[in-house]
Amino acid sequence: MAYQSLYRRYRPRRFSDVRDQEEVVRALRNAVREDRVGHAYLFSGPRGTGKTSTARILAKALNCVNLQDGEPCGVCESCTSIDAGTSYDVQELDAASNNKVEEVRELISRVALGSPGRTKVYILDEVHMLTAAASAALLKTLEEPPDHVVFVLATTDPQKVLPTIRSRTQHYEFRLLGAEDLTEHVEWVIHDAGLDLGPDAVEYVVRQGGGSARDTLSALERVAAAGGVVDEGESLTDLLDAVAAGDPGKALLAVSDAVSSGRDPRVLGEALLARLRDVFLQRMGAPLGHLPPAEQARVQVWADQLGDRATTRALEAVGDALLEMRQAPDPRIPLEVALVKLSRVDGDASLEALAARVAALEKALASGGPPAATPVAPVPQDPVAEAPPAAASPRTPISSRPPLSPVAPAPAPSPAPTAPESGAGGPAAQARAALAAQRAERAARGPSATSAPAPAPAAAPPPPAAPAPKPVAAPPEPVAATPEPVAATPEPAPAPAAPAMGSGGGSIDGIWAEQVLPKLTGLAKGVYQSADLISLEGGKAVVRVDNDHHQQGCERKRADVEKVLSDVVGQPVTITFSIADGGSSPRTSGPSGRSAAAPVTDDPDEHLAGADVHDLDDAPDAPTGGLAALTEAFPGAELLEEP
């Protein structure tokens, strides 16, 4: 007799031989014993769980002449012929290869023909592979077959079977076998077949089978042919150990060993994903009946090392790597990248990795060992290029200026020399000094140039004007303000500005120059560029303008500026205007770098006397009109003179 594979030789012959499918077996045996067999059945479940074998047992029971309590005898002519595959009472059709409508119609044409036994059984395996036309052709016969015909449909993917077919059948679901049942079955097969294999082989083939009896017996036959277990799972175990221990080098070495031994990276990734699923089930408290006891203990160790968050990240990362392998030129690269991310959490910037690092820190704190804090070295600052927030602006609001100390009165204002700064601060300081000297010279040429007084209390009247203005070394940009030259006449440092309203928490000049003016556009920016914010308290802002004409221009765009200022400080703000000619305190140089000491007249030259033209924004081009606008609107057109 020719050699038969173990899974064919030890195929179940009776209902009692079917393992771990008690509900299905009991229902079918009772139906046969009580003569209540349906005309169509649908058996679904994973591969190797006994669907086709149970269908053949049902066919034997329906045609057995020595039926015993719903069980076929297995020795009569009908039973032996069905076991041998030569019976006319059983017609098997592989729907995966015979899925066309012509083949199904040919089958239907023979349904009405009789057979030697009592019942003619049609077994259609992988019925979900039938085409839509073939399934439609089967519907009517499946619903009302002849009295002597029973259909048994088997599939591993029941959701792909047409609902109209499922509704015409009795659906029974087969499940994977448990590890204990498979272990007992393998031990019995080893004893019955006379195989010289030890307990390690039983554990290995049960793990390889994954709950499928056919896959388990196929693995057993492979081990028997090799004379023992060829350990192909050592690299997978090393892989899980490396991920659990956070060792990327060991993980990459395990992948390299597995690939060099002939394993496909995708197969290795699928095996890793299946093992991670076992770890996930262990973390969630789900039963692991499909694993032998020794494997369950190993999975428990990995689950304790990884934890819930790391296990979930590992499942997602390996699953994504398997998807990327389809398009990757080297399938190892996505798997290796995923393993490095899993084993080196500090190198992963994803939210999941950051959460894992936080969880590790919390675990370290809970165990009593505080994490080591990394000291941050102070960054040296240039005293000329960077100034403290209190001295960021050369001007302090009148309402927030503290009274001067009687011990150290402010000296008389005098022009600041430029030579000391030009030699002390490098090229940048020299440029700032030269710019300040140019501004002072332009301000001195003005007809009504006055000097800025020393800081005074809020209630004090404005001091008299000095013959020459005091130059201030302010930067061209409003952000990087520069303090007063150090080598000037002895003068106390400006008092720290009171914190102003707004998100930035800086001075009023900083808010006006850095947060308000940059957000203005068009005419609003043009008219407010030469205005100054002198007070901002309680939702009321005071803006100083040059004259009545300037105030009228600012009044037209006041709503736009109030909106921007309200957004900056975080509450509604109302703007009022103060005219410099109307008795207000003289202005010092603002954030834009211009000198505001001289009142501004309607003369354009005098209006720009204290400003640097490089600080002014470019005005938009004048709009075109008339024939020029029409010509621009239609490129390529020619203007013809009217007759």
Provide a descriptive summary of the structure in words.
The chain has helices spanning 6-9, 22-33, 51-63, 77-84, 101-109, 132-143, 163-166, 179-193, 199-209, 213-226, 234-245, 248-260, 265-284, 293-324, 332-343, 351-366, 419-424, 426-445, 508-516, 522-528, 548-556, 558-569, 604-607, 626-633, and strands at residues 40-44, 90-94, 120-125, 149-155, 170-173, 532-537, 540-545, 574-579. With 643 residues, the protein is α/β, with parallel strands linked by helices. The strands form 2 sheets. It has a 5-stranded parallel β-sheet, covered by helices on one side. α11 runs antiparallel to α12. Residues 372-425, 447-505 and 582-616 have low confidence and may be disordered.
The number of helical runs is 24
- Strand content is 5-15%
The helix/strand class is alpha/beta
The radius of gyration over CA amounts to 46 Å
Give the N-to-C terminal Cα separation: 114 Å
Q: Percentage of helical residues?
A: 40-55%
Give the low-pLDDT segments: 372-425, 447-505, 582-616
Spatial order of strands in the largest sheet: 2-3-4-1-5
| Overall pLDDT confidence | 74
Q: Could you say which overall geometry the principal axes of the C-alpha atoms support? A: elongated
DSSP, total strands: 8
How would you characterize the largest beta sheet? Answer: 5 strands, parallel
